[in-house]
# Entry
Amino acid sequence: MSTDYGESETRFGIRIDRFERLRETVAGDYKATFGLTTVVLFVLAAIFAPELAPYDPMAQDFALMQAPSLSSPHPLGTDSFGRDLLTRMMYGARISLGVSLGAVTIGAVVGVSLGVVAGYVGGWVDDALMRFVDVLWAFPWLLVAIMLVAVFGQGVWNVVAAIAFAYIDDFARLARGEVLSIREEEFVLAAKNVGLGDVQIMTEEVLPNAVAPLIVQFTVLVARAMLAESTLSFLGIGVKPTTPTWGALLGQGRSLIGQAWWISIVPGIAIVVTVLGINLFGDALRDAFDVRGEGGSP
Amino acid sequence: MSLLDIEDLAVTFPVEDGPDVPAVDGVDLQVAAGEIHGLVGESGSGKSVTARSIMRLLDGAEVSADRFDYRGEDLYAKSEAEMRRVRGDEIAMVFQDSLSALNPVMTVGEQIAEVVRHHGAVDESAGLLSELRRKYVTGTSKSAPSWRRAVDLLETVGIPDPEEVATTYPHQLSGGQRQRVMIASALGGDPSLIVADEPTTALDVTVEASILDELRRLCDEFDVAILLITHDLGVVAETCDSVTVMYSGSVMEHGRTDQLFENPAHPYTKGLLRSIPDGTATDGELTTIPGSAPEPAERPAGCPFRDRCPAAFDACTDPLPEHVVDAGHVARCHLYTDGDDPGEVSWETAANVDDETNGTVGDTETADRTTPTEVTDG
# Structure
């Protein structure tokens, strides 16, 4: 590919805004474009489900139960109760995307805060925080989920809490490890030398240097969270059974895979494509933050 | 009055199992406002430790001094919050390795602008939330006063095309440019004293010369004092108004640069000056001071240089005296205690003595250190 002057200009030139960098990365990389497009489409479908969906997610069409995929008037077919699968997929996206993104975000905020403080401050603070994280890690998250459901009843927030709980230790350990090496760098000493306080140094100097691996971790865990939500729905301790989620749809179709493959294949494909999309977009996001890897993306 | 006045500084690093390491012992250092003061010494002489003790950023070290005054106020009596205001606002530091001392993920303009905002020189919020928004989302606006100031500072330190350079990342700049960025960043807090820890050691000589010229110019123009730490006497002769010579954790001699270079009194200073290659050596051998500096824990009592000194005699085991050679020129050497000038020290004899006897410290007693009033850092 020939590089004209304009391109080399942007390569070494004005790169103040991270969004600017991200836009460039996405525009210059078809994988990132694909990832972003998929995620945005699914998110839009989820947000505008009431407006876009052709049917009511609960409406049953007794004449067309287990109607095959690609058949009119149900483009993706119907499930065993005659409910439109496309509609249920769109409504299901609200729970599946919302729960996985929400849970991982909460896990990331709590975990990264713990990890950064532990790594930066060190000493007994480090010991105390990391032992706390060990306790979280040692606690089976399924048990936590069952406990939450037992105490508060079934609900989306319990699912979010249980999954977030499970991912705190991943983020805490990763962030701590990164910070342990970054805090020894001379620019941290230089920041102290211009009179910045510890909170400022942690958030403004150290954390930006640890962002790249954390983003990768985030995208990986979003994929896992989506599957975790499916697991909970499958076990019947997720959201209420009538509420459509991708995981629940997948679980319902499992017993009918011989007669009506589309009931489980369609949500399965949706999960795969979303996870792939988030990962590809995550790579672009990481490249946008990793200023040293200039042009180094494969 | 001196801007910085340190008297009898001792810095000790406690070692868990083993004797403590006395990195610096009995250092006096005076830096006057608006001057460039050179702090010279070989590796391990404690010059960097001395410099960093000024910032109170020596983790795990025990620092004590009879006096540690900046503008007449004891730095070690200040609270941590007061000290944070001193750092950057009053005293700034320039590091040797500019690549590792600049944050790799921030543009240089962003880093200087941050210092400017933190110093409060511009009417712009430096609160945590607005700083976080800048760091992670928007970046500093190019029309913001702090960004304008950052570009001005880059121009001040002689960077061509400062607007463009402000938007680059540290790894995209050359070593010389990065060092200028470091200096610009140090100036961001409008300090009265810049501590420059070997700022030109990593640079080649032509760039070194231009950076030193820059420091000289900034010192004259902005009336900022510079404590220039170096192991290069050539740098001192070229740049500094006054100089302190350190050896093995102690000050050997200090005075104005012209006094010290024209009339060196301490044998160590004489040896150093004699060791500067003048281009006349024809046998391919460079002149050196025989032997090597003792380890801090094995320092002999009295003068730490006595094992390598050609003029050493019995009195050298006594604590170092102060001999005023001239107004403001002090040599800490026993040769002058009886009042008369011992004349030229014969370095040639010393050079012929074989290294075995001259360089080893052997079983000489380590100095017994009195415990001065405790001022502990961190």
Summary: Residues 261-279+286-368 of chain B form one domain.
